[in-house]
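Private note to self, pasted from the team thread so I don't lose it. Backbone tokens:
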């Protein structure tokens, strides 16, 4: 990628962007969330349809690669500059191409091993696009507009997830597409959903790539010198993994919180379909109409929690101003944990939507509050790198989930996967309690005159600590 010297724009001189510029730079997140939502709501269903029984183990394919891909993508994007393509956008585009192809292929596989391999490709590719998106907000927006930038990302996360999670149900109930198929075959409603998801993913990310301009590094000579001193893929791998031992104190504390909250999320994403179809719909036959109706309803449940999260994200600053970010995150995670636990006591599928309200509140906080608390502890020139390292604590619990949840479900819960969701709920409550010990140094009082801006990450960064 060619490099040339360009005039630097210091952080303090970043121009304010218009509403549509912020919209354009955030629009790609809708495509990314399309991919994640389709994956989370349907991959376990695909595994069961193809005869898989060790579902948690199959999910290991993606995070093992993610441990390598995510921090390196952040590291490399910090050290990339092209006058034409910028710093983060090349990674958006490469990830979008790979992820879109994986989404098109995934529901057309004919064997279990192929599905596991495509999950590996799909999850890794989605993360290539996603990791630099959070750094882009810090790159382009002045501090007074970062609230709007992160709020826009949260909005598109909600929109993308609601639509994508609901697609199989909508195709079946609105357009008459079959949601059942012969043994060993993926239902047409799932196949068409993934096809639409692949198209939306690519076009949404392409929109951001073509409609967003990035600034060159502030000091090009310094940038080039640092890049030369740390050149090489092997060096990138070494620094990426050494970063886990050099994390700021706040980041280390948040890592433990992230571990337990994401372990809970992966228990939900992996086991919601078998838990709900067996515990509430009383079937394990993946070819039956009842099973597929239950699997479709899982998609609706996931759509509901994502929709709730988009609304809850706007309320988090209000709670944070009255208490603190730590208390806010604890409250939200406890709500999510109780939501997961409540599934055990439900027999009416419609009541699951109430459980998902609690999960949605937790999801809103997980997407925002840890990053808000982390922001003040990170050096600006290593934002992408440390975001990648921080992602270890999303990937590691996924690995742990793959290794232990299947064993627990089989040997401790006697095949009752709904109890695995209860375990996830307990894990989420633990993560909430651990939040109270986080050293949130940037948790300061927001001046009254700035209150209209309190809609997102920066607002959360401005709450007064009382815990």
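Design output:
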């Amino acid at each position: 990628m060619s490099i040339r010297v360009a005039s630097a724009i210091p952080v303090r001189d970043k121009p304010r962007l218009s509403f549509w510029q912020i919209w354009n730079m955030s629009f790609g997140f809708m495509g990314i969330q399309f991919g994640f939502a389709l994956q989370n709501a349907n991959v376990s269903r695909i595994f069961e349809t193809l005869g898989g029984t060790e579902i948690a183990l199959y999910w290991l394919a993606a995070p093992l690669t993610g441990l390598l891909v995510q921090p390196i993508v952040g590291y490399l994007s910090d050290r990339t500059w092209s006058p034409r393509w910028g710093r983060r956008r090349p990674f958006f585009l490469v990830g979008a191409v790979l992820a879109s192809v994986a989404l098109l292929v995934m529901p057309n596989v004919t064997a279990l091993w192929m599905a596991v391999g495509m999950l590996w490709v799909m999850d890794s590719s989605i993360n290539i696009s996603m990791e630099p998106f959070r750094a882009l907000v810090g790159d382009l927006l002045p501090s007074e507009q970062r609230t709007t930038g992160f709020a826009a990302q949260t909005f598109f996360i909600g929109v993308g997830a609601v639509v994508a999670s609901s697609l199989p149900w909508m195709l079946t109930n609105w357009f008459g597409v079959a949601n059942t198929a012969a043994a060993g075959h993926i239902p047409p409603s799932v196949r068409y959903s993934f096809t639409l998801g692949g198209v939306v993913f690519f076009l949404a990310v392409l929109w951001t790539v073509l409609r967003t301009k990035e600034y060159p590094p502030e000091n090009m000579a310094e940038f080039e010198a640092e890049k030369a001193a740390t050149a090489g893929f092997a060096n990138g791998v070494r620094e990426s993994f050494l970063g886990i031992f050099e994390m700021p104190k706040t980041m280390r504390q948040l890592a433990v919180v992230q571990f337990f909250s994401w372990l809970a999320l992966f228990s939900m994403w992996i086991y919601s379909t078998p838990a709900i179809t067996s515990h509430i719909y009383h079937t394990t036959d993946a070819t039956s109409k009842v099973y597929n109706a239950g699997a479709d309803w899982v998609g609706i449940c996931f759509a509901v929690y994502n929709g709730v999260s988009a609304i809850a994200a706007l309320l988090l600053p209000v709670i944070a101003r009255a208490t603190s970010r730590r208390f806010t995150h604890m409250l939200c995670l406890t709500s999510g944990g109780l939501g997961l636990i409540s599934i055990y006591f439900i027999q009416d599928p419609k009541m699951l939507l109430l459980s998902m309200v609690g999960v949605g509140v937790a999801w809103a906080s997980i997407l925002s509050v840890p990053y808000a608390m982390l922001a003040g502890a990170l050096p600006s020139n290593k934002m992408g790198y440390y975001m990648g390292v921080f992602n270890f604590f999303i990937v590691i619990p996924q690995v742990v989930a793959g290794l232990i949840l299947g064993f627990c479900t089989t040997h401790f819960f006697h095949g009752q996967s709904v109890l695995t969701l209860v375990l996830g709920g307990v894990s989420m409550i633990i993560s909430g309690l651990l939040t109270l010990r986080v050293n949130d140094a940037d948790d300061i009082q927001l001046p009254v005159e700035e209150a209209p801006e309190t809609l997102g990450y920066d607002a959360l960064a401005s709450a007064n600590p009382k815990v």
